[in-house]
Every structure is written in structure tokens, then in C-alpha cells.
């Protein structure tokens, strides 16, 4: 607060605009529908799973306080009209229970909460796009602001300010339903971001700072500079403890999406390796370690595992382009394996590895599991220092 007060003394307009944009982006990142869906799920887990009654009330209180402040957008008004009555009635039953201790009253509250939860669950998959007119009219009205486009500020360079925010946002179909946001800069260029809710991006931001340090070291050495070993970074801007912006990396796809599309095109089952393993042994989870290894090796022997190598080749317009991409692929994979090991980076499944289809570089995303937490976890700890599976090896053509 003291820092903001000092900043307001010389840049009042800048601070006011920054706070408004931040608040509105947080509002768009997590709608009331999603806040209640997540909150009711957590409250249910605490009460029915852990019998933690006080934890349940602590989870529900801020949700009802949010409703009491009243809706500010059309989307919030429609939520209030659809669910407000049931939620207010549920709150009343909760208050009665707190006064009387009669469990029947709490059960009546949960009947209403569950009814609301089911209705929200049915509507969330239909959330494929958002119009700023209904979710954040204040953002829609933004024109020619004084604040820089997130992630674009560079000391010594002209400041690219926010000119306007695109009126429509695409909602991606993944679990957390991130939004694809486009901001027009004062230079006329469009900056695309992934607006993520339900996720703390502060650690990802620190990882990007580490990558910047690694790049400085790699550029300062003539040998590593000549080999173009720098890590491809992207902007990460945390807005709160559970939302933030991630710079959209163009021409990129996850390895999972690339391999899925390749196999669909070639009429190959996406999980062919797993199917072969199940044909050999249906009760995989109950086998001994050596039996599991035998079944796994059987699946490897009966599949090529060259999907990534082949799509790198077929997507290249010439052998020269392919050679450059393959070289960049191998080098970026090596650098990130080394840096990932130093960082203790886990959870490197194919949806967390991206391929830049123009340069061939491997780009890592989602840095939630750092400092060897994946190795230390109780269930299914990871044993490997970094991911180097046969598909990744085959793509290096070694």
C-alpha cells in the first residue's frame, strides 16, 4: 500500500489504469460460475471427505460475500438470476445450523448446493467463447491507455502501450478453460496471451528469470553463442495468486497434439502401445516389476516410436530446412534437459513439451513441479532426471 501511495503521487493515472486492467482480467479469468463450481467442490471434499466443518464454512464464506457485494457485469447478473435464490436459501440453512447444531438443516443446505453444482457442471462445457460486453465492459471501453502491453516493456526501448482489448475471447477446451486474449498495442501490432485462472504463475515467472540468466551465460560464450543454444522464453505475468497471463508462442503445438494428429492421419490408434500391453497382460497393475518391464518391452518391440521423427521430416519443405530444424530440436532438447535437471523439473509429459514448428526448438511449459517435488511425492514418484524417451531419441536421428 505504501509503495502504491508513493507511485500515485507522481503517476496517479498509470496506477489507476494498471489496477483497473488487473482487476478486470482477474474477473474474466475466473467467472462466478467457475468460482462457485471450484468452491463447492472444495467445500464438499472438506466436509464429506475430511469431516472438516470449519474448513467447509471458511471456503463458502468468501463465495457468499462475493454474491452479497452484488453483480457488476451481465454475466454476473445472469448467474445471480439463475442461482442466487438457491444459494441464499442454502446460506440461510447454514446459519440456522450454526445456531441450532441440527445436522438436518446442514443437509438441506447441501441439497441446494449440490443442485447448483450439478447445474453449473452442465453449463461449463458450453463455455466456448466470452464477449467482453458481458464479462467486462470496462475492459471493452479501454482505449489508448498509458500502461505498457504486459510483458512488452524493455528498458531503453519505446514503450508499447495498450491501444485496445479485442472484444471476443476464445475459451480453450482444457481442464482449466484458459482464455485466448488479444491486446492491440500502440504500434499497431496484436499481442496474444493465454489468460489462465485457477493457477499460480509466480513460480513460472521465476523460472523465466532463471532461463534469462542461462541465456546470458550461453550468449557470452563464443561456442554456445555460435550453436544457438538459447532457451526460447515467453512472457509470464501473474495477476493474483490464482490467475495470470502467459505470452502466446506462435507456430507451436504440444507434442501430444502433434502425435495425436499424426496418428489420426495415419489411422494409428493414439494409445496403441498401451493396447498392446493390455493384450499381453490385462491386470498390469498387479504384475511384479520384472513382469511389467517385460510387457513394456513387448509393446516397444511391436511399435516403431518414430512418429515425431517422421512428422519433423514430412512437415519440412526441404531437406535443408529439415536439417536445421532437427539440429535446433536436438540442441534445445539437450539444453532444457540440463537446465531442467538443475531446476529439479518434473511432470514432463507430452502436453508440457511444445515444438516450434518453424525453428524446430523444444519449448517447455508449466513449471509447477520444480525442486524435485515430483521425485519426493509419496504416490508414483518420478525416478528420472529428465525426459528422454525413445520417441524423443528417434527424432534426433541418432
Automatic annotation (TrEMBL):
Domain of life of the source: Eukaryota
* Pfam families according to UniProt: FRB_dom, PI3_PI4_kinase
Describe the location of the PI3K/PI4K catalytic domain by residue ranges.
Answer: 165-398
Q: Does the keyword Kinase apply?
A: yes
One of the GO BP terms on file: negative regulation of macroautophagy
- Which family does the record claim for this protein? Belongs to the PI3/PI4-kinase family.
Protein name as it appears in the record: non-specific serine/threonine protein kinase
Write down the species.
Metacarcinus magister (Dungeness crab)
Amino acid at each position: 500500500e505504501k509503495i502504491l501511495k508513493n507511485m500515485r503521487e507522481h503517476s496517479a493515472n498509470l496506477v489507476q489504469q494498471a489496477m483497473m486492467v488487473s482487476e478486470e482480467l482477474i474477473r474474466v479469468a475466473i467467472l462466478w460460475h467457475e468460482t462457485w463450481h471450484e468452491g463447492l467442490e472444495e467445500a464438499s471434499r472438506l466436509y464429506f471427505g475430511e469431516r472438516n466443518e470449519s474448513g467447509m464454512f471458511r471456503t463458502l464464506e468468501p463465495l457468499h460475500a462475493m454474491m452479497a457485494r452484488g453483480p457488476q457485469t451481465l454475466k454476473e447478473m445472469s448467474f445471480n438470476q439463475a442461482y442466487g435464490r438457491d444459494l441464499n436459501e442454502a446460506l440461510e440453512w447454514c446459519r440456522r445450523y450454526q445456531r441450532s447444531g441440527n445436522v438436518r438443516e446442514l443437509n438441506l443446505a447441501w441439497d441446494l448446493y449440490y443442485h447448483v453444482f450439478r447445474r453449473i457442471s452442465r453449463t461449463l462445457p458450453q463455455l466456448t467463447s466470452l464477449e467482453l460486453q458481458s464479462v467486462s465492459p470496462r475492459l471493452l471501453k479501454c482505449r489508448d491507455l498509458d500502461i505498457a502491453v504486459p510483458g512488452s516493456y524493455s528498458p531503453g526501448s519505446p514503450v508499447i502501450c495498450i491501444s485496445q482489448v479485442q472484444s471476443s475471447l476464445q475459451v480453450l477446451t482444457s481442464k482449466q478453460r484458459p482464455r485466448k486474449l488479444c491486446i492491440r498495442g500502440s504500434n499497431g501490432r496484436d499481442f496474444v496471451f493465454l489468460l489462465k485462472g485457477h493457477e499460480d504463475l509466480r513460480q513460472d515467472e521465476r523460472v523465466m528469470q532463471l532461463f534469462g540468466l542461462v541465456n546470458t551465460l550461453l550468449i557470452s560464450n563464443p561456442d554456445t553463442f555460435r550453436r544457438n543454444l538459447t532457451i526460447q522464453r515467453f512472457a509470464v505475468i501473474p495477476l493474483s495468486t490464482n490467475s495470470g497471463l502467459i505470452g502466446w508462442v506462435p507456430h507451436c503445438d504440444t507434442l501430444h497434439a502433434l502425435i495425436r494428429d499424426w496418428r489420426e492421419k495415419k489411422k494409428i490408434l493414439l494409445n496403441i502401445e498401451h493396447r498392446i500391453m493390455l493384450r499381453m497382460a490385462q491386470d498390469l497393475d498387479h504384475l511384479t516389476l520384472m513382469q511389467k518391464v517385460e510387457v513394456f518391452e513387448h509393446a516397444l518391440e511391436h511399435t516403431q516410436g518414430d512418429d515425431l521423427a517422421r512428422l519433423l521430416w514430412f512437415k519440412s519443405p526441404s531437406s535443408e530446412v529439415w536439417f536445421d530444424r532437427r539440429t535446433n530440436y536436438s540442441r534445445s532438447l539437450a539444453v532444457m534437459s540440463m537446465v531442467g535437471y538443475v531446476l529439479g523439473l518434473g511432470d514432463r509429459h507430452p502436453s508440457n513439451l511444445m515444438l516450434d514448428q518453424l525453428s524446430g526448438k523444444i519449448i517447455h511449459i508449466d513449471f509447477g513441479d520444480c525442486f524435485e517435488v515430483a521425485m519426493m511425492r509419496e504416490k508414483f514418484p518420478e525416478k528420472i532426471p529428465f525426459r528422454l524417451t525413445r520417441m524423443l531419441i528417434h527424432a534426433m536421428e541418432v
